[in-house]
Specification:
The chain has 195 residues and is of the alpha+beta class. The chain is 25% helix and 34% strand. Helix 3 runs antiparallel to helix 4 and helix 3 runs parallel beside helix 5.
Amino acid sequence: MRAVGGVAVRRAGLALGAASHYRGGVDDLLHYFAYGSNLHPARMRLRVPSAAPLGCAVLTGHQLRFHKRSRHDGSAKCDAFYTGRPQDRVYGAVYRLVAADKAALDAIEGPDYDIAERVVIRAGRPQPVFLYRARPQAIADDLRPFDWYHALVVAGARHHGLPAAYIDVLAAIPSCRDPDPARAGRELAPLAAAP
């Protein structure tokens, strides 16, 4: 194990964390917890070609909220909001990715997310991961997600077989139509092409 940019990493093995300034070598692997639109592997692979899904996981003490304001379109995006209550859970998927690809994912997620190190439970065992959490100044509780974004989150949850009750709650989240139909088509294209 070695430390790079203040982050402990094992070569070609389990990443013990990640930070936005991480600059690992091509053999370093990180573990990312996806819970929003990156849940669906077709979308994730477009963003990070090295991303490989490892399985479903749960993050306790957090709630999934659609309250992070997008800088690009003003709509709501997902956030794993910390509550500290053990009964609150965010379900998602763990992806393994090459450390060299993390900078691209950081740029896509943008400056309104902080990178957090957490431990999720995957296959009954603790799994150290990094994830993105909305910065307080980017949170607005009066927002709704665009319909295409909502569809990506629900499709990803179904793809990974997250608990049915959780998917039902996700599916019931109100959304709104994107005023830019071309953007909606572009964003949903990976689902149309997915097997």
